[in-house]
Write a structure and sequence with these properties.
It comes from Candida oxycetoniae. By secondary structure, this protein is of the alpha+beta class. It is built from 8 helices and 16 strands. Bound molecules: ligand DP6. Ligand DP6 binds next to helix 4.
């Protein structure tokens, strides 16, 4: 039996202007536009092989070696959209194999440990959509595909592009204009770097989906944010990126992270994502900037305590040198050497650092995760 297959990789993105709030839950339509930076796939990526065959009995997905449930409304919505696009092509060209009728076997792996607690759903859904689009030989643009990824997980639509990305909220009720677009490619500002501080946490955070619903329903500050703050900030941040104005970009990024977490606190009952370690990291970044006499580092936090710090390569010695004093004893410095701090400088609660850069959007790859029988090859990931 013939097995058709395609493999791709997709990146993680970290928002600098946060998506928080849905105006339509089933279509994943947001209450505000957002902006993100795509991170390098050398350090963080999802690799997905999608295959289709008349011999497959059911749709199946293996994620990091484990069989996952594909029967969620979100995943089903994505698969239905992709199959419909394929069907349209098959109806136009009779010679095409009827892939839209075949069941799918999908195998997906992350190159970073799930244990690090990094949100992987954005890269995961982006890779899923891009892999099936490639398998089906769909000719839609990445912006068009981003609308399908959006239905899987809102933030996933931004992982369809590299560099600097906007998710335009749109105004249509059917979501036809709620899509990701590229603000600027990686080549526009390749010296932008990112450092992730993985913060240990013992509690299970409220999921983004649940958290944002509660915020929309109960927070007054949230209303102020979407009406009066985000529209202006969206334009300012886009401009700061186009101007490569790091200080401006950094201030807007930090203000937006702070306001997002303020709306979480203003949710009733309140939601806390930052912990004491996160707050110490904020202080460290403030100190780095005040010692430098200019803003050279920006923190941002998503729905958990991990920090992402953006900085420009030219300031690497200053930023990483200072960070090393506090977090030099954990893994992830990749042989980078800076001066050690005193023992009393050390801040506990960070389990590792990931030093990375900004990166490209989804890529095709020859590396397949599926064997001749259409089943997963032995796990090769570093997942633990
Ligand atoms: C704080 O995209 O995970 O990271 O659409 O419900 O799947 P769903 O939510 P998700 O939310 C991400 C929230 C955030 C901010 C952001 O990435 O913009």
């Amino acid at each position: 039996m013939s097995i058709y297959q395609a493999s791709v990789t997709a990146p993680v993105n970290i928002a600098t202007l946060k998506y928080w709030g849905k105006r339509d839950k089933s279509l994943n339509l947001p209450t505000n536009s957002s902006i993100s930076v795509t991170l390098s796939q050398d350090d963080l990526r999802t690799l997905t092989t999608a295959s289709a065959s008349p011999s497959f009995k059911e749709d199946q997905l293996w994620l990091n070696g484990k069989l996952e449930n594909l029967n969620t409304p979100r995943t089903q919505a994505c698969l239905a959209d992709l199959r419909q696009l394929r069907k349209q092509d098959e109806e136009k060209d009779d010679s095409l194999p009827k892939l839209s009728d075949y069941k799918l076997h999908i195998v997906s792996e992350n190159n970073f440990p799930t244990a690090a607690g990094l949100a992987s759903s954005a890269a995961g859904f982006a890779a899923l959509i891009f892999a099936i689009a490639k398998l089906f030989n769909l000719q839609q643009t990445n912006s068009e595909l981003s609308k399908i990824a959006r239905k899987g997980s809102g933030s996933a639509c931004r992982s369809l592009f590299g560099g600097f990305v906007a998710w335009e909220m749109g105004s249509q009720v059917d979501g036809s204009d709620s899509k990701a677009i590229e603000i600027a490619p990686l080549s526009h500002w390749p010296s932008m770097k990112a450092m992730i501080l993985v913060v240990s946490d013992d509690k299970k955070d409220t999921s983004s989906t649940t958290g944002m619903q509660a915020t929309v329903a109960t927070s007054d500050l949230f209303q102020h944010r979407i009406e009066n703050v985000v529209p202006k900030r969206f334009e300012e941040m886009k401009q700061a990126i186009l101007d490569k104005d790091f200080a401006k970009f950094a201030e807007l990024t930090m203000r937006d992270s702070n306001q997002f977490h303020a709306t979480c606190l203003d949710t009733y009952p309140p939601i806390f994502y930052l912990n004491d370690t996160s707050k110490k990291i904020i202080k460290v970044v403030e100190r780095i900037n005040s010692d430098a006499g200019e803003v050279i580092a920006a923190y941002t936090f998503d729905a958990g305590p991990n920090a992402v710090i953006y900085y420009d390569e030219k300031d690497e010695e200053k930023v990483l040198g200072a960070m090393y004093k506090y977090f030099g004893s954990v893994d992830g410095w990749n042989h980078k050497k800076f001066q050690h701090g005193n023992n009393e400088d050390e801040i506990k609660g960070v389990s590792r650092v990931i030093l990375t850069t900004i990166g490209e959007g989804p890529q095709s790859t020859e590396e397949s995760l599926i064997n001749e029988s259409g089943l997963p090859k032995l796990a090769t990931s570093t997942n633990n």
